[in-house]
Write a structure and sequence with these properties.
The protein contains 1 helix and 2 strands. With 60 residues, the protein is mostly loops. Strands 1-2 form a two-stranded antiparallel sheet. The structure holds zinc ion. The site of zinc ion has 6 residues, from loops.
Length: 60
């Protein structure tokens, strides 16, 4: 299983349309693998855009 840390240091993303105060707004469930993705970390977002990916091991 690929570890989150294998993808390098965190790549911080910014929301379009300003910040949100709701923590839930930062997460979505990946439609391909079902894992919860933190949209603030573009490593995770990019990983879950890849066809045929597996779930990431969240070690970081
Ligand atoms: Zn996924």
């Amino acid at each position: 299983m690929t570890k989150l840390s294998d993808l390098g240091p965190p790549i911080e993303g910014r929301r379009h349309g300003g910040e949100t105060s709701k923590e839930d707004d930062h997460f979505y469930a990946c439609p391909a693998c079902g894992q919860t993705v933190d949209k603030r970390d573009l490593r995770q977002v990019i990983w879950h855009e890849r066809p045929g990916h597996k779930q990431l091991e969240m070690d970081a």
